Amino acid sequence: MSDRLETALAKARLKTPENPLGMGLITYLMAGDPDTDTTLRRLSGLVKAGVDILELGVPFSDPIADGPVIQAAGLRALQQGMNLQKVLNLAARFRKENQTTPLLLMSYLNPLIHYGYDRFLSDACTAGVDGLILPDLPWRESTPFRQRAYELLQDHLAFIPMIAQTSRPAHIHGLAQEQKGFIYVLSRNGITGGDAEIPPQTLQFIDSLQTALSAPCYVGFGIQSPTQVHTLSQACQGVIVGSALVQKFAQLDACALPAHELVHREQDIYAWIGSLRKTSVREELACE
């Protein structure tokens, strides 16, 4: 695990006026949606809003784990010509501006294999990527991929495992000694996005992971309100906000505002993100 990621995960647990719950906050953007320069600007804006770790999606034509919001974002990015090489170029541009905020790539396995796995590992490290989330690569089947990454990069690239409520005990047990990075816990089964109430049984499941696992647990899929974050603070170390954020930016882009007004209105979204760890939030953004 990179020093950047280790430092960010530790810092995210500190209670501050901006983070009274001591909850880590990770956000997701699709690389190249609506274009590269806008993605870069928004990554920087999210950092200024207090986000601890950034997750950057690699668009793919068959995104089996993604809901309609992120599928649409991926399609828009692909239509702009975005590919893995350009995602890595974008990551490198971000890293030149920011040397402290961890950057994770969320990708399906196929683009990495097509690119060349060893070449990808080398280029990702050079670009300043700190970790990978590979939703279509089961953890126990990822061993040769993780071993190869260690051979080439040692601990510079963290592989982030995912756990669902349907995960078998053997899968959870296999992660018991994993201490690098964090565990991505699904708030519900299925694809990304949608509404996600946090029922008692879900909290119980997440809380049970605290005694079974060494790495911190971050909960994603459907996270979009301070109430959810407050509820989850009883059972985990942080949250991941993806579809709700992507949707807000997509709605804003659809307004076709002049460039200066678009940048100004993005501040409302950053304020919303920053407020998720607090007690109030501005839920809607209108075009007018």
TrEMBL record:
Q: Which organism is it from?
A: Desulfitobacterium hafniense (strain Y51)
> Which CDD domains does this UniProt record tie to the protein?
Tryptophan_synthase_alpha (cd04724)
Identify the catalytic residues: 55, 66
For molecular function, the Gene Ontology terms on record are:
tryptophan synthase activity
Q: What keywords does the record list, in alphabetical order? A: Amino-acid biosynthesis, Aromatic amino acid biosynthesis, Lyase, Tryptophan biosynthesis
- Protein name as catalogued: Tryptophan synthase alpha chain
Q: Which InterPro entries match?
A: Aldolase_TIM, RibuloseP-bd_barrel, Trp_synthase_alpha_AS, Trp_synthase_suA
Q: What is the lineage of its organism?
A: Bacteria, Bacillati, Bacillota, Clostridia, Eubacteriales
An example GO CC term for this entry is: cytosol
